[in-house]
UniProtKB/TrEMBL annotation:
Keywords: ATP-binding, Cytoplasm, Kinase, Magnesium, Metal-binding, Nucleotide-binding, Transferase. It comes from the Bacteria. This is Acetate kinase. Belongs to the acetokinase family. PANTHER family: ACETATE KINASE, ACETATE KINASE-RELATED. Its EC number is 2.7.2.1. It catalyses: acetate + ATP = acetyl phosphate + ADP. Catalyzes the formation of acetyl phosphate from acetate and ATP. Can also catalyze the reverse reaction. Substrate binds at residue 95. Pathway: Metabolic intermediate biosynthesis; acetyl-CoA biosynthesis; acetyl-CoA from acetate: step 1/2. NCBIfam families: ackA (TIGR00016). The lineage of its organism: Bacteria, Pseudomonadati, Bacteroidota, Cytophagia, Cytophagales. It comes from Algivirga pacifica. It is an enzyme of class 2 (transferase).
């Protein structure tokens, strides 16, 4: 069975084609600059050993339908194609950022499901329209395939009311759904499940904190495989300090910016989402550049990393309390998996909680689950590589 995974953005499409019998990636790619004068497609074809042959195209891509049509040409090409015909694709798994309170699990897409995804666009105005567009185009192009929605918010729907409600008037929740939803759920679900399996805690009590650190950052408290709290809230802006997002901030700051600096709501939204976080504090959003400056003694980089890692430690303490104990802390995603320096700085000062990092073990960029705690640490510290695309493919297969 072959399953195509699609992550459709406003001007881009990421894709991977899996052979589910072996979970091998047959090909993957990125369609970029949709709607601009010159677009591009980067397409990789993988052999049996996982080695990639890269192909790049420059062409005009006016819309998502043209972009996906070009992808189909590459998938079925006489020389580099991996399938003979689009009908070989049994299902298309779509990443959908927001499912509101309607969806707590992966769902076969019907017209009614599309209508619900459209209904919650106000909760994710930058993401859901593009996700929905990808669904509509794939339904037309891969007409024989089942279309499946995998929601970023679904994993967090097990949170208790005390965790997801805000202390605002009741009607704002009842009428407009203003509450914490959380994001990165596909990643948190994958790494927590794989960690629980690795620790031999399947079917047993388990208490895990998952830390997803990339350009976007979030944490989840996972008890017995279910999310009981997460750091992102109504939107992806809440919680940890991120590459360009502020994370937690006093709401009064927004009114100050509006009243004292005459900033408009769109300007404030842009400031907090695209000009804040590590970019706002250090002038850089790339952790590799920030750490290079940190090593050289740059004061802004020191300040930024101190703030970044302190915020993570605060959430670790809070989630240990919410879980009433802890079995393991799990780092994942681009920064979490590859940045030994960020992990080291994050773990400093947690020794009295029984959390002790082994500096030598930490100095890795692993392909598989790796333990990096010291021998006398009471709590395990792991790096668990995430694979959101495989998780989407597996969930899509389970539905069909």
């Amino acid at each position: 069975m072959k399953i195509l995974v699609i992550n459709s953005g406003s001007s881009s499409i990421k894709y991977q084609l899996f052979e589910m019998a072996t979970t091998a990636v047959l090909c993957s790619g990125l369609v970029e600059r949709i709607g601009l004068e010159t677009g591009s497609i980067t397409h990789k074809v993988f052999d049996d050993n996982g080695n990639a042959e890269k192909h790049s195209l420059k062409l005009t891509i006016p819309d998502h339908k043209v972009g996906l049509s070009e992808v189909v040409k590459l998938l079925t090409d006489d020389k580099i194609g991996v399938i003979a015909d689009p009908t070989e694709v049994s299902a298309v798994g779509h990443r959908v950022v927001h499912g509101g309170e309607y969806f707590n699990e992966t769902t076969l897409i019907t017209p009614e499901v599309e209508a619900k995804i459209e209904e919650v666009i106000p909760l994710a105005p930058l993401h859901n329209p593009a996700n929905l567009q990808g669904i509509k185009v794939c339904t037309e192009i891969f007409s024989d395939a089942k279309q499946v929605a995998v929601f970023d918010t679904a994993f967090h729907q097990t949170m208790p009311e005390r965790a997801y409600r805000y202390a605002i008037p009741e009607h704002l929740y009842q009428e407009f759904g203003i509450r914490s939803y959380g994001m990165h759920g596909t990643s948190h679900k994958y790494v927590s499940r794989e960690t629980i399996k690795y620790l031999g805690l399947e079917g047993k009590e388990s208490r895990i904190i998952t830390i997803h650190l990339g350009n976007g950052c979030s944490m989840s408290a996972v008890k017995d495989g279910k999310c009981i709290d997460t750091s992102m809230g109504f939107s992806p802006l809440d919680g940890l300090i991120m590459g360009t997002r502020s994370g937690d901030i006093d709401p009064a700051v927004i009114f100050f910016l509006e009243e004292k600096l005459n900033m408009t709501p769109p300007e404030i939204y842009d400031l907090l989402n695209k000009k804040s976080g590590m970019l706002g504090v250090t002038g850089d959003s790339d952790m590799r550049d920030i750490e290079s400056r940190f090593i050289e003694g740059d004061e802004a980089a020191k300040r930024g990393l101190d703030m970044y890692t302190y915020r993570i430690r605060k959430y670790i303490g809070a989630y240990m309390a919410a879980l009433n104990g802890l079995d393991a802390i799990v780092f994942t995603a681009g920064v979490g998996e590859n940045d030994a320096g960020a992990r080291r700085l994050t773990m400093q000062g947690l020794e009295n909680l029984g959390i002790k990092l082994d500096l030598e073990r930490n100095n890795v960029r692993p392909a598989d689950i790796t333990e990096i705690q010291s021998d006398d640490s009471k709590i395990k510290i792991l790096i668990t590589p995430t694979n959101e695309e495989l998780e989407i493919a597996q969930q899509a297969m389970s539905v069909i």
